[in-house]
Amino acid sequence: MNARRRKGPASFTAWYGQARLTKEDKTMGNDVRSKAELLADFHGLLAFAEEIRSVDERTWDKPMAPGKWTLKEVVGHLLLWDQYFYEAAVGKIAEGKPLMLKHLDFDAFNARAAQYGRDQSGGKLVEELVLWRSRIIDTLEALPETEFRRSFPDLDGKPFVISRYIPDFVWHDRHHMKQIREFLKSSS
Known about the structure:
CATH superfamily: dinb family like domain
Number of domains: 1
Radius of gyration: 16 Å
CATH architecture: Up-down Bundle
Low-confidence stretches: 1-29
Order of helices and strands: HHHHHHHHEEH
Shape: globular
Largest sheet: 2 strands, antiparallel
Number of helices: 9
Distance between the termini: 22 Å
Helix content: 55-70%
């Protein structure tokens, strides 16, 4: 799968769309796991960040496969999506403010994220990845269960529910962690 432009069920459109509710499901997310269980899964990216912290800079700059993103570009992609969701949704919910979340041009966002990754050191990317994911987790841990499962309107008028967003992001994390682990295994 080309990391530069994904299509089909693995696309950001598909997994972000799942975090938005349909008209028939306006009040509660459909993931019945507890908030603690969902957040435990969400912590997985933090442990992974520690795994890649010691990767040498030359490896960070190598494409993960011909025509694919580098490790820097993938980590830049992960951290900028975390930053966006914190600033546009999670942080706003915690502050009791309207969401700033809206449908984006995913290809343009991902291109900017890849460029951002190319412009940073691997160590800085890991630090920022940990910073943004930790901010999200800390904020979500402090939210009452009702807010965690409540529907909030985004700027497009679509409902957004944190308890649906978490499993989608965990899927996205695992998708990229698998790619990176395979790349690092083949590079050693």
